[in-house]
Design goal:
Strand content: 35-45%
Number of domains: 5
Radius of gyration: 30 Å
Shape: globular
Largest sheet: 6 strands, mixed
CATH class of the largest domain: Mainly Beta
Number of strands: 44
Distance between the termini: 77 Å
CATH architecture of the largest domain: Sandwich
Structural class: mainly beta
Length: 627
């Protein structure tokens, strides 16, 4: 049977002529004429449906039936978007945490795509927008999924949803995330993943502080985030309950927030029971080389070997800067280089075992900028295994999966900075070698990059606060001024540490604040060049307690083991565990840190624990129950 669609002026008289195909049969039929429903009001950005960021995902059903194609300046880079794609729009304001998890659910439309845009101030629903990310199939089935932990708090973001190609239908959508920062001197971020997207069931991650009752976290779909506020000196205990189905789909990661530097990663499937314990110092570990901020400097055109084994902790690549790397980050490592003379640079990435390596190069830029700004200068996403790189007679600047693994060499400028990302698409963990081919006068021997400051840390060491930091390289570095503040706004210089001047190697620095303020202290470094140019480091906070003594005992009640955590400000001590009759059943010495006592052989019941200093004075006493 046939269908006709007509668009014309109001009041036009139309005649419909109907006949049987072939004109050799007669019969009855039905006919109707209807006007199509008006398009949804969120057919364009200025009519976007405003969404609130909830604490949990609650899907609401929407449709793109009857919509039109929105013509805005930034076209999505996924989902086969074209002139016939029917899109609808949503908007939300990023919460104070800068976190947003955007999930979709299939309805009558089972294959959708989604793009996330940032509305750069001044706000204008007509754009131009910055394309943050575009996704097609990371959600359940063929539905999209997007999450970010570094959005601009208070910033306005738009979500564009359409069916793959020209598909239309209904779908579910939600935006959720932790919306407020928890109290604490530092914050950890717990990320929970389900590779199939059907949730963990009864499985959960337990977070206990100082051996107290655990707070359990789980995930109902593909992904969930929890923020945990912690204070210096507390004991963090992480456990996993593996009671749900499909353990091979589950994994989780605990990291420092912001920045995401991993503290603990569960692997797949997660191990059940207590899996991680840490005395909180609020000092994040240095960035991983799998993150742009942890990249290493290449100097003297040296060849080297490396093994990429993770995606790092920070999402450095997005739709705005990944270029041909359509899968984003897989297993990769980051490198910086800065030529000492103009010329042409090529290089070869040679996997030790034939595997699929991809890469991208960004530049030139005045200094290391992470994430890299804009699309790459050279990029290869070729699928075949084997050597890849810039050179080998290639003339193309970028290539997709169908490429031959080689793109053109590139001209470089003296003193400018370039960033290289080497990406193991196969996620095979196979190592690679990298060698350079320099021509037309190019030299990496060796312009030192601007100050690369790593591992800036501060900690309470008893009667004072110790600050340490490391530079990976220095150029014309005259000195570091150490500054302190009580409010993180007004800083005062409390000391000066001379710089190394020029260096291409790691240089370690240390400064001790002999008279910290009681309570919370804020510190930063003011790095000053020989020409007077200066820059400030990030701000660190330290809660100064002075020479206090602290002991943490957990779990209580317990079974097979008892953990005693002696604070770093407490001298070497001893412990005594006494049963209900007054008989000593366990005793020994304690050093700062954690000591684990084996209690499996003890009868169930009530015990008394005492911790004494070197002179025998009781520092801590409490009851402990063996169950």
């Amino acid at each position: 049977m046939s269908t006709l669609t007509y668009a014309g002026a109001v009041g036009t008289v139309l005649y419909v002529r109907v006949w049987e195909r072939g004109n050799n049969a007669f019969g009855t039929f039905n006919i109707c004429a209807t006007a199509p429903a008006p398009p949804p009001t969120n057919d364009n950005p200025c009519g976007a449906t405003a969404l609130s960021v909830g604490a949990a995902c609650t899907f609401t059903s929407y449709t793109n039936v009857g919509t039109t194609n929105s013509a805005i300046s930034v076209t999505p880079t996924c989902g086969n978007f074209g002139a016939g794609s029917m899109d609808v729009w949503f908007s939300f304001v990023a919460p104070a945490t800068g976190i947003a998890i955007i999930e979709t659910q299939a309805g009558t439309m089972t294959d959708a795509a989604m793009a996330l845009y940032y509305d750069d101030p001044p706000l204008n629903c007509n754009g131009p927008f910055t394309l943050v990310e575009c996704d097609d199939d990371l959600g359940p089935g063929l539905m999209p999924f997007i999450s970010f932990t570094n959005l601009v708090p208070g910033g306005t973001y738009y979500i564009r949803v359409w069916g793959y190609g020209t598909a239309t239908g209904t779908f579910g959508l939600c935006v959720h995330a932790p919306t407020t920062m928890p109290a604490g001197q530092c914050v950890y971020m717990l990320q929970l993943y389900d590779s199939f997207g059907d949730g963990w069931g009864s499985s959960s991650v337990g977070i206990s502080i100082n051996g107290g009752p655990a707070t359990n976290y789980s995930v109902n779909g593909s992904y969930n985030i929890a923020l945990i506020g912690l204070n210096i000196g507390q004991v963090l205990i992480v456990s996993y309950t593996a009671s749900g189905p499909n353990q091979g789909q589950n994994n989780y990661r605990l990291g420092y927030y912001p920045g995401g530097t991993t503290i603990f990663s569960s692997g797949t499937p997660p191990v059940a029971g207590t899996v991680f314990t840490q005395v909180i110092t609020c000092q994040p570990p240095p960035p991983s080389q799998s993150d742009c901020l942890g990249g290493s400097t290449v100097c003297n055109a040296q060849s080297f070997n490396n093994n990429a084994n993770s995606t790092g902790n920070v999402v450095d690549l997005s739709a705005a800067n990944r270029g041909c790397l359509a899968s984003g980050e897989r297993q990769g490592t980051w490198y910086y280089f800065s030529p000492s003379s103009n010329g042409t640079v090529g290089f070869t990435i040679a996997p030790v075992v034939a595997t699929d390596y991809d890469f991208a190069v960004w530049g030139p830029m005045a200094a290391v900028t992470c994430p890299p700004p804009g699309p790459p200068l050279r990029c290869s996403y070729a699928a075949p295994t084997g050597n890849t790189g810039c050179g080998n007679g290639a003339t193309d600047l970028t290539e997709g999966a169908a490429g031959d693994r080689w793109v053109s060499t590139f001209n470089v400028l003296s003193g400018q900075v370039y960033i290289l990302y080497v990406d193991n698409f196969s996620t095979s963990g196979q190592s690679f070698g990298l060698s350079w081919q320099l021509s037309n006068g190019a030299s990496l021997d060796c312009t030192v990059l601007p100050i690369e400051l790593h591992a800036f840390a501060a900690r309470d060491i008893g009667a004072s606060v110790e600050l340490t930091w490391t530079t990976a390289s220095e150029k014309d570095n005259d000195r570091f001024e150490v500054q302190r503040s009580a409010d993180a706004v007004n800083f005062t210089a409390i000391g000066v540490v001379p710089g190394a001047g020029n260096s291409t190697e790691n240089t370690n620095y240390r400064f001790v604040d002999a008279a910290p303020l009681p309570g919370l202290n804020y510190y930063r470094l003011r790095q000053v060049d020989t020409d007077g140019h200066h820059e400030h480091s990030a701000i660190l906070s330290v809660h100064f307690e002075g020479l206090t003594k602290d002991v943490v005992v957990y779990p209580n009640p317990g079974k097979d083991q008892l953990n005693l955590v002696l604070g770093s400000r407490t001298d070497r001590s001893s412990y005594l565990l006494v049963d209900a009759t007054g008989r000593a059943v366990l005793e020994g010495s304690l050093a700062p840190g954690m000591t684990t006592l084996s209690t499996g052989a003890l009868p169930n019941g009530l015990y008394a624990l005492r911790v004494m200093d070197a002179q025998g004075s009781v520092l801590h006493k409490q009851a402990w129950v063996k169950e």
